[in-house]
């Protein structure tokens, strides 16, 4: 008797829960809002990347392999991941040209890292030039507010 009472209470409870639940077509699901630290930080990241590029320029000029390795790593994280990701978040329509220029940047930075690890001065100079070219090409295409060529010399602001 006691077990049949427990079973009937369980069945009644289950039926009450089923009946009280809304039907799937009545449930309104709102689009979740995703907040990320990457949004609205593109300008700050690019300013930091510009500073790192000037420091990398100085390291390449002086064949400072330790500094070159450090700044290429920082730049790869700063522009290669952070800035590109931020640009993609802020702009829903990403063109094939942007992806190609991003790949060109990553290729140049990887080759520069390899040249610095092997202490190849001429190769480091060439790859740094390719890196600057990839930055200029991307800014020409996507940063309409930029004025002229990017200046990563020591004369730039720090």
Verbal overview:
Helices cover 69% and strands 0% of the residues. The longest helix is centred in the middle third of the chain and has 26 residues. It is built from five helices and no strands. The protein is elongated and about 90 Å long. Helix 2 runs antiparallel to helix 3, helix 3 packs antiparallel against helix 4 and helix 4 runs antiparallel to helix 5. It has a domain of 101 residues: Cytochrome c/b562 (Four Helix Bundle (Hemerythrin (Met), subunit A)), CATH 1.20.120. It starts with a helix and ends in a 16-residue tail after the last helix. With 158 residues, the chain is an all-alpha fold. It comes from Candidatus Scalindua brodae. InterPro entries: Cyt_c/b562. GO terms for molecular function: electron transfer activity; heme binding; iron ion binding.
Q: What tags apply to this protein structure?
A:
elongated, electron transfer activity, mainly alpha, 158 residues, Four Helix Bundle (Hemerythrin (Met), subunit A), 5 helices, Cyt_c/b562, 69% helix
